[in-house]
Specification:
The protein has about 130 residues and is an alpha+beta fold. Helix content is about 25%, strand content about 45%. A hairpin with a 3-residue loop joins strand 5 (about 45-50) and strand 6.
Length: about 130
């Protein structure tokens, strides 16, 4: 089994539970054995429920309340057998982050305005 044969796709985040679908395309038998880490600490094993006989499983990761705090929180979903990362998700929270996002949006808007002016000038000059 290689991690190239495994894919994990997010379906939703609702009520503090991240959900996704894990698919296995290999020909040998496979049973998912996953763990979830936050800040390099194992926070538990996700719930893995077989969806169908075609090697698809529903993966449910409850987000612990103690892991929710200001800033950026990254969660990694790891295959235990290979120790490879299958997926990750990020949570952003806090008042200080709000200022960072606004500053980044202002910077992006300014750059977009600059590009629009340069493009218009280029169009006029090439006519």
């Amino acid at each position: 089994m290689s991690t190239e044969e495994i894919s994990l796709v997010k379906t939703r985040l609702q009520n503090g539970i991240w959900e996704g679908v894990l698919s296995y395309s290999g020909s040998d038998a496979y049973e998912p054995d996953l763990r979830v880490t936050h800040m390099d600490v194992i926070i538990g094993n996700p719930e893995v429920i077989r969806k169908d006989e075609e090697n698809n499983w529903m993966v449910r990761v409850p987000i612990p309340v103690e892991a929710i705090s200001d800033g950026i929180q990254t969660f990694m979903i790891i295959e235990n057998e290979t120790n490879e990362k299958l997926g990750s998700f990020v949570m952003l929270a806090g008042e200080s982050l709000q200022d960072d996002i606004r500053a980044e949006m202002d910077l992006l808007r300014a750059e977009l305005d600059m590009l629009k002016k340069a493009f218009r000038r280029h169009c006029i000059e090439t006519l």
